[in-house]
Specification:
Length: about 425
């Protein structure tokens, strides 16, 4: 959530940033916010004046009573009662204005960094790095859903029978590959200094709001109505919320966590080739990395996280690229996002496997994650997160890229985790 003081003091900068996120009529919306904020501040001043007058009169009443001026004291008591009644009405109006202001503020997305490209669609994103050779496709190069069937790795139809579309069943070497990747990513992350966390996968509304998923992504989240809980769309939500309402010493930061969870997303409106096989699922496995940093550390932390994610993909010997998202393609909460995409040899296209984002104070303002600076003042920390990594499209790319005609080879870094160096057909 944007800080109201930022909107007051850098109004034009805020409007320009929101326009780069394409929210529509940013000038009008910011004007409405500032109007309500001004009303609230004026009313707060009035309330403070009333309280000051009450305190002053209360002291005078005490003096009058000591001096026997009962008539004057009674008149002042009546005045105090009237002032308190006025202040009570001020408090009610302040609460209403504060709720209105908060409602408007939570509808605003985060402001993008200056280096975020302009544009609305993925076509406007900027490629900043590419690694590996893109192997040619051809009639004998199969997409992962055919490889999964040939090698008995994943059964999509059984998942439909048990639950519905988007809930695959992994079998044999396919299940072992999933488990191997999760352990591989967690081990690499902890070796890089991230503390492993095993969080709940059900979260409450406050947690969803804290990371910016609610109200923005409410339609994409699975909701357990009876208990008013949401299935976590990513480990970012429960892990980041561990630090809600906390105050840290500057020397305690950065905090670095990693976590594996199954993730749940409704993916409403998805269709066509984008949902074939593992391309887009309602339930999938993902390992996440999260950092809480000092503001001056967050840009360096983002670079570090990107290098780490790129190293994971390189260890799996998968051609990939890193792109900087444009303003219109970024998430609601992000200030700067880099996506990592692996090359799908069997589909002849790029598949996103990770987003690494810096949220600056957007999440921490909602969560009230603060630290005490060298002057003893409480300041908002910065939060970041990234996928390290999301499994479905990694598995898809692994199967397609490493297919050899009569087998699927396992990258050498992963062999200690799978226990085998190749997958062979069932027949």
């Amino acid at each position: 959530m944007l800080e109201i003081n930022l909107i007051r003091t850098q109004t034009e900068t805020v409007i320009a940033g929101l326009e780069r996120k394409y929210i529509g009529d940013a000038t009008t919306r910011i004007g409405q916010i500032l109007e309500v904020d001004e009303q609230k501040r004026a009313l707060q001043t009035r309330s403070d004046q009333l309280k000051s007058k009450v305190n002053s009169l209360s002291r005078e009443i005490g003096e009058d009573m000591k001096s026997g001026r009962k008539t004057e004291a009674q008149t002042k008591k009546e005045e105090v009662a009237r002032l308190k009644s006025d202040d009570s009405r001020c408090a009610e109006q302040l609460e209403q204005l504060d709720q209105a202001l908060q409602h408007m503020l939570v509808q605003l997305p985060n402001l993008p960094y200056e280096q975020v490209p302009s544009g609305r669609t993925p076509n406007d994103n900027l490629e900043v790095h590419k690694w590996g050779d893109l192997l040619p496709g051809g009639a004998d190069v199969l997409p992962h859903w055919e490889l999964a069937k040939t090698y008995g790795l994943i059964d999509f139809e059984e998942g439909v029978k048990v639950t519905g579309a988007g809930f695959p069943v992994y079998r044999g070497a396919g299940a072992r590959l999933q488990r191997a990747l999760i352990n591989f990513f967690l081990d690499r992350n902890t070796a890089a200094g991230y503390l492993e966390i095993q969080p709940p996968i059900l979260v409450n509304e406050v947690s969803g709001f804290g990371t910016g998923n609610l109200p923005d992504k409410e339609g994409q989240m699975y909701f357990v109505g009876e208990d008013k809980l949401y299935l976590a769309p990513t480990a970012e939500v429960p892990v980041t919320n561990l630090y809600r309402d906390t105050l840290w010493k500057a020397t305690d930061l950065p905090i670095k966590n990693t976590a594996y969870t199954p993730c749940f997303r409704r993916e409403a409106g998805s269709y066509g080739k984008d949902v074939r096989g593992l391309n887009r699922l309602h339930q999938f496995d993902k390992v996440e990395i999260v950092q809480i940093t000092l503001p001056e550390q967050s840009e360096q932390a983002l670079d570090e996280m990107c290098r780490h994610v790129g190293g994971l993909i390189e260890a799996l010997e998968l051609p990939h690229r890193m792109i900087r998202l444009c303003g219109g393609d970024m998430s609601f909460a992000s200030a700067l996002t880099y996506d990592f995409e692996v090359w799908s040899r069997g589909q002849d296209r790029w598949l996103e496997v990770s987003s690494v984002s810096n949220f600056r104070t957007f999440q921490t303002n909602r969560l009230k994650v603060r630290y005490r600076d060298e002057d003893g003042k409480n300041q908002l920390a910065h939060s970041l997160n990234g996928s390290a990594l999301a499994l479905p499209r990694i598995v898809a790319a692994l199967l397609e890229h490493h297919q050899q005609g009569d087998s699927i080879q396992i990258p050498s870094a992963l062999v200690p985790y799978t226990g085998f160096n190749a997958i062979t057909p069932l027949w």
